[in-house]
Design brief:
- The protein is of the alpha/beta class.
- It has 2 domains: 2-108 and 285-303, 2-Layer Sandwich (Nucleotidyltransferase, domain 5), CATH 3.30.420; 120-281, Nucleotidyltransferase, domain 5 (2-Layer Sandwich).
- 35% of the residues lie in helices and 20% in strands.
- It contains 9 helices and 12 strands.
- α1 (36-54) packs across α2 (88-96) and α3 crosses α9.
Length: 306
C-alpha cells in the first residue's frame, strides 16, 4: 500500500492506495496556517489514523505548495511562508518513524495523471496548473523531473511570449516582475481581466456561463485568455515537446479550451506536425494526493514496513 499526503492551502489530506492504485482510505483536516510544528503533528496524526484503519505502515509521499532546494533539501519558496527554510520531510519522518519523500504539488498532479490518469502511457507529460496561481510539473518515464535546482516546470513566472502592443510590459506580478504568465492565464487573471475591461467583478465560472449564453464581453475575455494560454503552451511545445499536456486547476474545467488550444497554438509551434494531445484531468482534486502516494513508484521501499 502507498500513502500520500497533500498539504494544501485550506486542507491537509491523506490517502492510501492499494497496489493497483485503488483508493482505500482518505482523511483530511484543516491546514494550520503559520503553525509549522502543529502542521507536522497534524500530518503525522492523519497518517497514523489511516494506518490504523488500513494497516498501511510504509513510507509516505507528500506534495507541498513550494519549490524545494536541490542543494539543501529545504523549502525555498512557498505561498505558505511558514514552510520556507524548513526540512519538512525530515521533520515528518522523525515524527512518524518512517521514510518521507516530498515534491512540489504540481509535480504530484502531473505524476498522478501520468501513472493512471489522462496521460497514462505517455513518456513525457507537462501538467499545467491553471488555478489561483500558475505552475506545472514535468514527468518523464513515470518519474518526476525536478531539474538541476528543483524548479523545472515553473513556467508561471516567465513572461507572456509574443506579446501584443496592449500586453506590454504587462501587469506587475507579486514576484516583482512584469508580464508573467501567471498574470494572464491563472483563474485569478481571467476574472481580473474581465473586471478591468467591463467593470463587472464576476467569478471565472460566471464569465464562462455568460459566454455560453451569448454575452459578447464574456466571449472577448475568454478569447483573450485562450490566446495567451496558447502562446504560453506553444513555448513549452517548442522547448520540451512533450507527448501530452494535461491541464489542472479551475480553468481546466472550461471545455472550450480543449477545442480551441490546438488551433491557437499551431501558428506558434515550430513543428509542422504538431498534434500533441491537450487533456482534461481524470483525477481532478484527487490528483495531488494520488501523485504524492506514487512518489515511491515501484521502489522496494514502498512495501517495506519499518
Amino acid at each position: 500500500m502507498r500513502i500520500g499526503v497533500d498539504l494544501g492551502g485550506t486542507k491537509i489530506e491523506v490517502a492510501v492506495l492499494d497496489a493497483a492504485g485503488q483508493e482505500i482510505a482518505r482523511q483530511r483536516t484543516p491546514t494550520r496556517h503559520g503553525d509549522y510544528d502543529g502542521t507536522v503533528r497534524a500530518i503525522a496524526d492523519l497518517v497514523h489514523a489511516v494506518g490504523a484503519k488500513t494497516g498501511a505502515q510504509g513510507p509516505v509521499g507528500m506534495g507541498v505548495p513550494c519549490a524545494i532546494s536541490a542543494k539543501t533539501g529545504l523549502i525555498k519558496t512557498s505561498n505558505a511562508t511558514f514552510l520556507v527554510g524548513r526540512a519538512i520531510d525530515k521533520d515528518l519522518a522523525a515524527a512518524l518513524g518512517r521514510k518521507v519523500r516530498i515534491e512540489n504539488d504540481a509535480n504530484c498532479f502531473a505524476l498522478a495523471e501520468t501513472i493512471d490518469g489522462a496521460a497514462k502511457g505517455a513518456q513525457c507529460v507537462f501538467g499545467a496548473i491553471l488555478g489561483t496561481g500558475v505552475g506545472a510539473g514535468i514527468v518523464m518515464g513515470n518519474k518526476v523531473f525536478s531539474g538541476n535546482t528543483g524548479i523545472a516546470g515553473e513556467w508561471g513566472h516567465n513572461p507572456l511570449p509574443w506579446p501584443e502592443a496592449h500586453e506590454f510590459p504587462g501587469p506587475r506580478c507579486y514576484c516583482g516582475r512584469y508580464g508573467c504568465m501567471e498574470r494572464y492565464v491563472s483563474g485569478t487573471a481571467f476574472a481580473a481581466d474581465h473586471a478591468a475591461r467591463t467593470g463587472r467583478m464576476l467569478k471565472g465560472e460566471e464569465i464562462v456561463t455568460a459566454m455560453r449564453a451569448g454575452d459578447a464581453e464574456a466571449r472577448t475575455t475568454y478569447d483573450r485568455y485562450a490566446r495567451s494560454l496558447a502562446r504560453g503552451l506553444a513555448v513549452i511545445a517548442n522547448v520540451l515537446d512533450p507527448n501530452a499536456f494535461v491541464l489542472g486547476g479551475g480553468m481546466s474545467n472550461v471545455d472550450e479550451i480543449y477545442r480551441d488550444l490546438p488551433r491557437l497554438m499551431r501558428p506558434h509551434v515550430l513543428s509542422d506536425e504538431f498534434d500533441t494531445p491537450i487533456l482534461k484531468p481524470v483525477h481532478g482534486d484527487s490528483a495531488g494526493v494520488r501523485g504524492a502516494a506514487w512518489l515511491w513508484g515501484d521502489d522496494s521501499d514502498a512495501t517495506h514496513t519499518p
